[in-house]
Amino acid sequence: MSTIAPTAELPATAAQSGAEVLLRALKDQGVEVIFGYPGGAVLPIYDAIFQQNAIRHVLVRHEQAAVHAAEGYARSTGRVGCVLVTSGPGATNAVTGLVDALMDSIPIVCLTGQVPTHLIGNDAFQEADTTGITRPATKHNYLVKRAEDLARVVHEAFYVARTGRPGPVVIDLPKDILIGKAPYVSPAATPHRSYRPQTEPDSAQIGRAIALLKGAKRPVIYTGGGVINAGDAASAALRRFVRMTGFPCTSTLMGLGAYPSNDPQFLGMLGMHGTYEANMVMHGCDVMLNVGARFDDRVTGKLSLFSPGSKKIHIDIDPSSINKNVPVEVPIIGDAARALEALIAAWEADSAKPERTALAEWWRQIDTWRAKDSLRYRQSMDNGAVIKPQYAIQRLYEITRELGRETFISTEVGQHQMWAAQFFRFDEPNRWMTSGGLGTMGYGLPAAMGVQIAHPDALCIDIAGEASILMNIQEMSTLAQYRLPVKVFILNNQYMGMVRQWQELLHGGRYSESYSEALPDFVKLAESFHAEGMRATSVDDLDGVIRAMLASPKAVIADIFVDQKENCFPMIPSGAGHNDMILGPEHEGGATGVSDDGLALV
Amino acid sequence: MTAADPTYTSATISVLVDNEAGVLARVIGLFSGRGYNIDSLTVAPVDDSGQRSRINVVTSGTQMVIEQIKAQLDRLVPVHRVSDLTQLGPHIAREMALIKVIATTADKRAEALRLSDAFRARVIDATVESFVFEMTGSTAKLDAFVELMRPLGLAEVSRTGVAAMARGTRVI
């Protein structure tokens, strides 16, 4: 037996390098997959990854795509997505993805390499002020300057990313911290010293909400991405509450799937390209219950015209979302699931009778709005007829439904995204990945990749436009490397369609720089990336191409030629209210167009 | 509501934060990124161990904007507490200024000294051509003294910004 006491400087855990401690902390946080790209500053981490099997690394082809892939992974599983990039350009390339995750409240932990601590501030090779650059791009960020902080910071980063309103967190890791020895500590059992988001709703506010809801004659439940973020319990509680109240329910782009789209009480998406009935209900309601949505400008239209006659209840876990754009009568701060469960209990316990007669009258009114069939379009079935983009998505939806496979949809940004939201119907949460707040073209392909990694047996489809898809097309190579059978369904109208639509409606049809000139041959492009390429040029080809795409065991790019002139309707023009929609060419009348004020809005 | 109640008010907000690298940048970035006004901002460690700092910020905006500022500050991870002193009741807000006056004529020098006496400013540096006054008080009082010094040869002003706390037994 040795008589030499162990020295205090060398506890048993200090035998590990910073990189090893980092991986151990990630493992303890339940990380199974990291999306990343190596570089000089993170070589010690890659060396540690090489020597273990617990965590899988997926090599992307661009750091922006790593973050979007982690977003797809996170949003489809409800877990925290993990990203690893190098210093300098690795970190700056990740910034778009970080802001995307910030705007859509997606939990991400992004590890960035950094030059050694003694070189920070010296304009060293591949140095960037990553914490400075990402401060407004993240929920929180850290620069680890002492080895003893490393494990604690990693645990804290995961806590911050997933609790409260979720979001991206950056940990900047200088190379000397990764190489040197570092002690390991387990996740703290004590609450965070300052960050403790409120999850339990205030019961007095719940009571006030129930009083308003019981007396409502023209109610609406308006749900958002917060319901998805609050997990399956929130979606289940929402379904119960909507059904027990008999109220109509609409959803933002980010909230689709929380309430089943095919249910008769669902009005469809609301907002700029929402259905006529959803927007008219929002405009005409007397009590509005907002669950986990943030009164975004795509949803409200002109604020002074937004739902002028209603009393509003707003459930949000982020107190800064309350009264930011729209003042509300009853704010409820808390987790959406907990708040909805409290509402259900209070609704049942309350003896007041709801306004059944008035509600029946409200539904009769809603039915007349529904009868407008505002998403109507006309598809010619003649031989060689041009494919309408709406029809392409409708058929994609119907055929995937026939197959009955678990299906996840991601999108890029633009017209195809809105048509996907309108025509692909979701019955479950976490099946729909789209870039809502930031509107990031190039999001869909890497997001679908992340979803496919998380759900290897599921059908993962990126509904894309021919312009957006080119923004992260390099990820076709990642699909090939990991044999990910992602399907890319391109609605190819040879225009940046939403830009073209706005130029047509707002700028006198001057299509400045919105034509997709010199497009690649997407079939050959797919083949060059070891995937399958397919093309549909007329309505005769469409079903066959969709079926072949879905049957293929490989990654597929399906290039669907669609009507170049088709616009996305209904549309609330900028600067207009919800009751002032432009309807499609199938409808008579409609709104007046865009005001001068509206022209300045985006 | 911004449209319904467009009156601008001033608010003095105290924020208790972890004294960590970048925390001031987070607060300043929040104000600049979201287009809020900063009329005054001070920061210094306030506990024995130097682990916590207190930021006092004087801002202005509509009531809705001020509520937003507080909510946005409160959700920053290293923020422990946000306290709106203006809203919570009577409070004291003081700042300190160093004011340099260059005056060579006897009457201007005498007048500057007489006024400084009336305002209870202290002379902390003097030459045959100049004075530096040190003065503590409310922002309005400092403004008034600076204006009075202008015709007497005001040359330079250095102010600390506002330190504030609630009156009575209430603490942040």
Descriptors for this entry?
heterodimer; A: 602 residues; alpha/beta; Rossmann fold; 3 domains; 6-stranded parallel sheet; 22 helices; globular; disordered N terminus; B: 172 residues; alpha+beta; Alpha-Beta Plaits; 2 domains; 5-stranded antiparallel sheet; 4-stranded antiparallel sheet; 5 helices; elongated
Secondary structure layout plus pairing:
The complex is a heterodimer of chains A (602) and B (172).
Chain A: H1 18-28, E1 33-36, H2 43-50, E2 56-59, H3 63-77, E3 81-85, H4 89-103, E4 108-114, H5 130-134, E5 140-143, H6 150-162, E6 168-174, H7 175-179, H8 203-214, E7 219-223, H9 225-229, H10 232-245, E8 249-251, E9 266-269, H11 276-284, E10 287-291, H12 297-300, E11 311-316, E12 330-333, H13 336-349, H14 356-370, H15 389-403, E13 407-411, H16 415-423, E14 432-433, H17 444-454, E15 459-465, H18 476-481, E16 487-492, H19 497-506, H20 522-528, E17 532-536, H21 539-551, E18 556-561, H22 596-599
Parallel strand pairs in A: 1-2, 1-3, 3-4, 4-6, 5-6, 7-8, 7-10, 8-9, 10-11, 11-12, 13-14, 13-15, 15-16, 16-18, 17-18
Helix pairs in contact in A: 1-2, 1-6, 3-4, 3-17, 8-13, 10-13, 11-14, 15-16, 15-21
Chain B: E1 9-18, H1 23-33, E2 40-45, E3 52-61, H2 63-74, E4 79-84, H3 85-88, E5 91-102, H4 106-118, E6 122-126, E7 130-137, H5 139-149, E8 154-159, E9 163-166
Antiparallel strand pairs in B: 1-3, 1-4, 2-3, 5-7, 5-8, 5-9, 6-7
